[in-house]
Amino acid sequence: MSEDFTAYVIERDETTKEQSASWKSVSTDDLPEGDVTIRVRHTTMNYKDALAITNKSPVVRRFPMVPGIDIAGEVVASDSPDYAVGDEVIMNGWGVGEVHWGGYAQYARMKADWLLKKPAGLSGADCMAIGTAGYTAALCVLRLQQAGVEPGDGTILVTGASGGVGSFAISLLSSLGYTVAASTGRVEEEPYLKSLGATEIVDRKTLSEKGRPLDNELYAGAVDSVGSTTLANVIARMKYDGVIAACGLAQGFDLPTTVMPFILRGVTLAGVDSVMAPKARREAAWSLLEEHMDRAALAEITQEADIKDVAEIAPKLIAGQIRGRLVFTVD
To answer: Domain of 35?
Structure first.
């Protein structure tokens, strides 16, 4: 049955290559292929969504496109034996918002393999408050645990601490008993970061400028969402057998480092991908969040926003002016 609904659609003039975006009326007949149709109830904004909306980076690879890489809602039609009408589901990644229509709409259609059942202990709004940022942070924490980093080994450094990934990483690590140092360039965020569980604040400037190939051994592990010179300095400050879970490139995709920390201190640089992570890994991350995400910290991290304002919010998020996570209710 065909139904009209509203979606935020990014389009491109194929002659001039200029991009535009607006709220439009579309039909369920326009939805891309998939075996599960979802009534979207909540979504959020990630850095990638903001890049797509502002066209600061060529994120969108197929036009027209509906951004929104995180979705929470209920199944309204299904050709999959894994999901029935009425099931509450969540979705992160899989190229949604880049090559497949996403969550800035009342309806979405997805492949069943991309979906997860909503964790029983979290609401749909909770899951979107967590979103790809919190899910990625959980993957990073799991990577540190799997590499054998234990709370007694020493302090864990979190870069980009006041952003989404950083905020969740601090909260999760603290709830698991780790001592956490938070790196930020915003001094005014110190009370917020300490409320999440950070015990030490590190000035971003000490990490963002060129440093020594080997520095003082300060950290047993790290969660880095910044990349570039910051990550190089984090590597140089690792203790012997230190492990870094790297998941972002907010400063840049280059890595001006040397092999010295790796061959002299046995440092491990572990990459973390959230987009194409297999289902078992995703379920483990969401289980970690369901069990260990402090609900008071989640409320502290989260703010509600009007989905109609995505065009105004996106440049603020890119400029680092948005703390924590935004949740949009899709009416």
So the answer is: 4-118+299-329
